[in-house]
Structures are given as C-alpha cells and as structure tokens.
Design a protein that fits this description.
two-stranded antiparallel ribbon; globular; about 270 residues; eight-stranded mixed beta sheet; 9 helices; alpha/beta; 10 strands; single chain
C-alpha cells in the first residue's frame, strides 16, 4: 500500500493507493467516502474491502476529501464543488497510473456525490458505480443529520430550542451552523440538500450496483433502493440490488465490520463486468 498526498487545486489530499495484485490490470476503483463522522466510523471496513479488491486485481485509491481527515483545509471551508474537483483530480491520477476502466465505490451520502460526478462526464474511463448503503435523497439525509443538533439542545435547557426547518433556513441565508462538532458551510450542504438520485447522466456508465447492509431477518432492500434499481433497469443499465446481514458500521458506537460484505462486493463487481 502506498500512502501519500495527492496534489489538488484545493491543497494536498491524504490518499492511500493499493496497486492491483496483477501488474497488468487496467481496472481501478476510486472510493467516494461517507459524510462527516460516518466516514471515520467506516475507515476499518473500507480498508478491509480495499485490501480484498486489490487482491482480486483492482487498483484501489481512497482519498480524504478537502477539509476532512488528514487532507488540507477545514471542514467549514469545504464545498460541494471542491469535493467534485477533488474526485475528478483523483480520477485523473488513476488514469495517469494506467487505469483504463474505473469504478466509483461510494458509501452512504458519497453516492449522491458520485452520481453528480457521473453527470459531469469529466472522466471517460469511468464506467460503473458500486454504492454501499446509498443515500438517495439528500434532504432526508441532511434532516436526519440536523436532528443531532436539535436533540442535543433538548438535553441542555441553556441552548436555544430549534427545529430542523429553522436550521435549514439559517443555511439558506448563508449562515454557517455547527452540528455534532462539524461546522456546515452552506456551499457544501445546500447542494447536498437538493441532491436526489435520478437518471440524469447515469446512462454514460455501463453498470450500477446497490448494496445495503440490513438487520438480521430483513431480506428486502429499502423501498427507495428498489425503486432506483427498477428505474435503472427500465433504461437498460446493467443494474444489481443486493443485501447482506450485518451491523450499521458507519454509525455504530464502536468500530465494527461486516465480513460478509467483502466477498459480496467482489462478486457483484465481477458480475457487472
């Protein structure tokens, strides 16, 4: 594994690169991380999957986006456009390493960032998407995130009591607000608020796979995921919807893993071609 800083217009981005076990491979994968604390909770699981993918002949690049992890900048200065640029620069780097076919591998809200990137058509080598536990509606996701601040205020009578609607209005006025230790820049979260998974631009790639981690005994994908899979299939995009039993590693109190997710992801990737 190579650990380095990838140079970008926004500053150096912390990156880990796992070359493919097969030196002649031209397949590569770029990980699009989850949002805020979900990214940190998921590092162990992402690393395990990346190791396994490299062992199967896929080069894997993971980056900390601007303002996150060990990359340059502060979270409050991050914007949706900067993160899009970071991913495009990472794709260009992979092409420079010889990659001819690249898969985006997203986690949670990273799916919306990945879908937006696909629409841009900025990398011709990009041909598929694998989305772990994808967030398909940015407004629903952001509302849930803002509830962390609302709940914290309810536990402390000295803090002003707010609603998620009031917090959204503050963001729309251009105000920075803090939630769970993260200062949210309107230029980052307003595009997230408006983001929804749709078919615009997705036809530029060959295949899409959604994988959800579900509680034991639950076998059906979420209604949103099922609907999105059907829409993709209706426009003749090679699409798969899969699930595996396990814990919500992106939000668990402790660091947990879902071992069965690793071989499933590899199998899905192989099936997609």
């Amino acid at each position: 594994m190579r650990v380095f800083f990838l140079e970008s217009r926004s500053g150096p981005l912390f990156a880990t690169y796992r070359p493919a076990s097969n030196p002649g491979s031209r397949r590569a994968i770029l990980h699009v991380p989850a949002f805020a604390e979900e990214m940190n909770k998921s590092r162990r699981m992402v690393a395990l999957q990346a190791d396994a993918l490299a062992g199967q002949g896929y080069a894997v690049l993971s980056i900390d986006l601007f303002g996150t992890g060990d990359s340059a900048g502060d979270f409050v200065d991050a914007s949706w456009r900067i993160w899009q640029d970071n991913l495009l620069e990472a794709l260009d780097w992979l092409v420079g390493q010889g990659a001819e076919r690249i898969t985006l591998w997203s986690l949670r809200a990273g799916a919306l960032l990945a879908l937006d990137l696909i629409k841009s058509g900025g990398c011709k080598a990009l041909d598929s998407l694998i989305a772990w536990q994808p967030v398909l509606n940015g407004e629903v996701f952001l509302t849930q995130f803002l509830r962390l601040r609302v709940a914290a205020a309810m536990m402390n009578p000295e803090l002003p009591q707010e609603t998620t609607g009031e917090l959204k209005k503050q963001l729309q006025r251009g105000e920075v607000i803090e939630v769970a230790g993260y200062s949210l820049n309107p230029e980052l979260v307003l595009p997230l608020l408006a983001a929804k998974a749709d078919l615009n631009g997705v036809a530029s790639i060959q295949s899409v796979a959604l994988i959800e981690v579900l509680p034991s005994g639950v076998n059906e994908l979420s209604a949103q995921a099922q609907q999105f899979v059907r829409k993709l299939q209706d426009v003749a995009i090679n699409t798969a919807g899969n699930s595996v039993a396990g814990d919500s590693f992106w939000s668990s109190q402790d660091i947990v893993t879902v071992p069965d997710l690793i071989p499933l992801t590899i199998s899905v990737l192989v099936d997609l071609g």
